[in-house]
Design brief:
Layout (H helix, E strand, L loop, with lengths): L13 E3 L6 H31 L6 H18 L2 H10 L3 E2 L1 H34 L4 H4 L2 H27 L8 E2 L6 H5 L7 H33 L4 H30 L7 H24 L3 H24 L1
Parallel strand pairs: 1-3
Antiparallel strand pairs: 1-2
Membrane topology: Multi-pass membrane protein
Keywords: Cell membrane, G-protein coupled receptor, Membrane, Olfaction, Receptor, Sensory transduction, Transducer, Transmembrane, Transmembrane helix
Function: Putative odorant or sperm cell receptor.
Length: about 325
């Protein structure tokens, strides 16, 4: 029986099949993912810097956006750097503890973003549909409650699902057919019945995906309804803003719903990998570009920051 042991006890490491497993396009994919990663870090970093240094951006909307940028920087950094380093070193393994940590951080951060995006849509609804009550409904205290609530939901998701996922017995094959330790991919290696756990995870996804997504849709629908009675220019501006926001939000929530809520028989590991790229790698880059850097307030703050930097350079040059 010793040689026929069902579970792998010789190693606790997992092997990530990754995105770069096709040699003919691995170099191109590596370059694309690297560009997206560094663009996401730079764009989100600039957003945080501008929002905290420019007094004109000290409003509830930008306060929430700065936290969205922070979450995006954190959760893309839990996945992509290891992928890039592993490709350069020619390795694919991840330790059990490393996999557990990545799983927990990913669930916590992405869960916090699910809630935050929904509450940010509510912020826009209040600002446009109830402008006179906006200072009361979106006070500093309410903003901090939104942030705290988002993080609480994310931590609850991570603390609830990670211990259960990682305590299942795993079979001899420890090859995760994915580019990071995502729950469905890890569960496919389990040598136990996971039906009950998958039901619990499905319920969590309904709470974390469908409810915030419904809030987003309802909020933007109300915004468009209000602007329908305004000027033509106002309607065009509202539609442009809402459509760009909805595109990113639908990409984010839609891809996650596909992975976590669609029955396994309807999708393959290869499809899961593609959809996971949308909400783990692309979205952190798109969020600051769509939500903020296209905004006149932000571009104005960026110009002022560049102006201050040039003045500092001139002063430094004059001194020396």
């Amino acid at each position: 029986m010793g040689s026929m042991e069902v579970y792998n006890t010789s190693s606790t490491d997992f092997t990530l099949m990754g995105l770069f497993n096709k040699k003919d396009i691995s170099g191109l994919l590596f370059a694309i993912v690297s560009i997206i990663f560094f663009t996401a870090l730079m764009a989100n970093g600039i957003m945080i810097f501008l929002i905290h240094t420019d007094s004109r951006l000290h409003t509830p909307m930008y306060f929430l956006l700065s936290h969205l940028s922070f979450i995006d920087m954190m959760y893309i950094s839990t996945i992509v750097p290891k992928m890039l380093v592993d490709y350069l070193l020619g390795q694919r393994t991840i330790s059990f503890m490393g996999c557990t940590a990545q799983h927990f951080l990913y669930l916590t951060l992405v869960g916090a973003e699910f809630f935050l995006l929904g509450l940010m849509a509510y912020d826009r609804y209040v600002a446009i549909c109830n402008p006179l009550r906006y200072p009361v409904l979106m006070s500093r205290q309410v903003c901090w409650m939104i942030i705290a609530g988002s993080w609480f939901g994310g931590f609850l998701d991570g603390f609830l699902l990670t211990p259960i996922t990682m305590t299942f017995p795993f079979c001899n094959s420890r090859e995760i057919n994915h580019f990071f330790c995502e729950a469905p991919a890890v569960l496919s290696l389990a040598c136990a019945d996971t039906a009950l756990y998958e039901t619990v995870m499905y319920v969590c996804c309904v709470l974390m995906l469908l409810i915030p997504f419904s809030v987003v849709i309802a909020s933007y629908a109300q915004i468009l309804t209000v602007h329908h009675m305004s000027s033509v220019e106002g309607r065009k501006k509202a539609f442009a803003t809402c459509s760009s926001h909805m595109t990113v939000v639908t990409l984010f929530y839609g891809a996650a719903m596909y992975t976590y809520m669609l029955p396994h028989s309807y999708h393959s590991p290869a499809q899961d990998t593609v959809f996971s790229v949308f909400y783990t790698i692309l979205t952190p880059m798109l969020n600051p570009l769509i939500y903020s850097l296209r905004n006149k307030d932000v571009t104005g703050a960026l110009k002022r920051a560049m102006g201050r930097f040039k003045c500092t350079q001139k002063v430094s040059g004059a001194v020396f």
